[in-house]
Design goal:
Blueprint (H helix, E strand, L loop, with lengths): L1 H4 L4 H26 L2 H20 L3 H11 L2 H8 L1 H14 L15 H16 L4 E5 L6 H4 L3 E6 L2 H7 L10 E5 L2 E7 L15 H12 L3 E5 L6 E5 L2 E6 L1 H17 L14
Helix pairs in contact: 3-4, 7-9
């Protein structure tokens, strides 16, 4: 430790690193609150803390005694309440190796034709109101989910995607997983989100898309079977009512961010984002 402290400008370097890490932790915490229902729970905890401070200042002996006894189990209660969110956070960190994720990881399309094939397929499925869920694998391996379906390993084109989701086909109700610009598998089962959903128009496909995006860095496209609405899901956040132009713009933006942006610190490969 003494040797490290002898490094020139060690104090300034340590302060800089300390500030950056605290900033990233706060950023990740606030982003997590925004994507979950935990914000209301945090407000409730803050209210309990304020009541405790008020009882202490006003010398409310009985109330203060009750709250002090309650405080001893408060930490355990918080862990139990936030257990689903904590589990999803640890699963994402373990799967991606990234503690601080500031941008989405999106695989590079080999050609403009590949991107256009995907967009045309989504547009066709939307116009025909054929329900579909298309998963684009990022850095997190989706092998455990692709093994639940039918292995395809075929070219990514409009005809193939449309036939896989055609009503009556064995793969209609499952998800298609795209890996390395190829259709890896179809008819796959995905985990459903455990978060509460207030919009009753969202069905099982939307819940599955949210569930997968909460534990992986995959990008998920959902087409509603009832309305044909196109939705894009990333990091547990769903954007609905997209046109094919808006979808293409967003996918291109995600790809450019993945190519040039900071994707986060990875414990699996700490030099990958440098």
């Amino acid at each position: 430790m003494a040797i490290i402290q002898q490094i020139p400008y060690y104090t300034y370097i340590s302060i800089f690193v300390d500030v950056i890490l605290v900033y990233l932790l706060i950023y990740r915490f606030l982003a997590w609150l925004k994507r979950s229902y935990a914000l209301d729970l945090i407000k409730g905890l803050m209210l309990v803390i304020l009541v405790f401070l008020a009882s202490h200042i006003l010398s409310l002996t009985t109330l203060n005694w009750i709250l002090e006894r309650f405080a001893t189990v408060l930490l355990i209660v918080v862990v139990i309440i936030f257990q689903p969110e904590l589990r999803r956070f640890l699963e994402r960190v373990g799967a991606t190796g990234q503690l601080f994720t500031l941008s989405s990881s999106f695989p590079e399309m080999k050609s403009t034709a590949t991107m256009q094939s995907l967009i045309r397929a989504v547009d066709y499925l939307s116009r025909e109101k054929i329900g579909a869920i298309i998963v684009i694998e990022g850095q997190t391996s989706l092998s455990q989910y692709s093994h639940t379906g039918i292995q395809v390993r075929g070219d990514l084109n409009m005809e193939m995607l449309s036939s896989l989701f055609w009503p009556g086909s064995p793969t209609h109700d499952g998800a298609v997983i795209i890996k390395d610009n190829m259709i890896e598998a179809a008819g796959c089962f995905l985990p459903l989100t455990e978060s509460s959903i207030t919009d009753r128009s969202l069905g099982t496909r939307h819940r599955a898309a949210l569930g997968l995006s909460e534990v992986t860095d995959a990008i998920v496209i959902v087409i509603s079977e009832e309305s044909g609405v196109i939705s894009l899901v990333e990091h547990g956040v769903m954007t609905r009512y997209l046109t094919k132009e808006a979808l293409q713009t967003r996918l291109v933006s995600l790809q450019s961010q993945s190519d040039t942006g900071f994707s986060g610190f990875s414990w699996k490969n700490p030099f990958k984002s440098l």
